[in-house]
Amino acid sequence: MTRKRFEWKLRSRSLTLGDRTLVMGILNITPDSFADGGRYLDPAAAEAAAIQMEAEGADLLDVGGESTRPGSEEISAEEEIRRV
User: Fold this and answer.
1) Cα-Cα-Cα-Cα dihedral of 24, 28, 33, 36, to 10°?
2) CA distance linking residue 65 with residue 30, whole number of Å
3) d(CA 2, CA 18)
4) What is the pLDDT of residue 1?
5) For residue 72, is pLDDT > 80?
6) Which residues are CB-contacts of 63 (< 8 A; sequence separation ≥ 6)?
7) Are 6 and 18 contacting, i.e. CB atoms less than 8 angstroms apart?
8) Would you tell me how many other CB atoms lie within 10 Å of the CB of residue 75?
9) What is the DSSP secondary structure assignment for residue 4, as one 8-state letter?
10) pLDDT in tens, 7-56
11) Phi-psi region for residue 80, left (φ > 0), alpha (ψ -120 to 50) or beta?
12) DSSP conformation letters of 26-73
């Protein structure tokens, strides 16, 4: 079965979709992350984790600056941008 190919045009590059299944790394930059307990609040730790995910084969990174866990408090857009 042939898969349909798509080009996702980004600001400085493009990403080919359809040739293979892509892997997305998830990086939570929140103090109350249930997945990692806030381990990546420090920018250097977040950067190191992102580089490690890329080295391990991640094609995309989902960087989250606001918690979505049940009961979490909403933060300002400015705080989310600062974290990310």
Assistant:
1) 70
2) 6
3) 9
4) 67
5) yes
6) 27, 29, 46, 50, 84
7) yes
8) 14
9) P
10) 999 899 898 898 888 999 999 999 887 777 788 989 999 999 999 999 99
11) alpha
12) EEE--TT-TTTTTTT-SHHHHHHHHHHHHHTT-SEEEEE-S--STTPP
pLDDT value, residue 77:
95
Residue type at 84 in one-letter notation: V
Spell 21-54 as b/e; 16+ CB within 10 A means b: eeeebebbbbeebeeeeeebeeeeebeebbeebe
- What does the block give as tokens for 15? 């990403």
Distances (CA, A) of 20 to 4, 10, 43, 82: 10, 19, 31, 34
Q: What tokens does 13 get?
A: 């590059």
| 57: confidence class by pLDDT, cuts 50, 70, 90 | very high
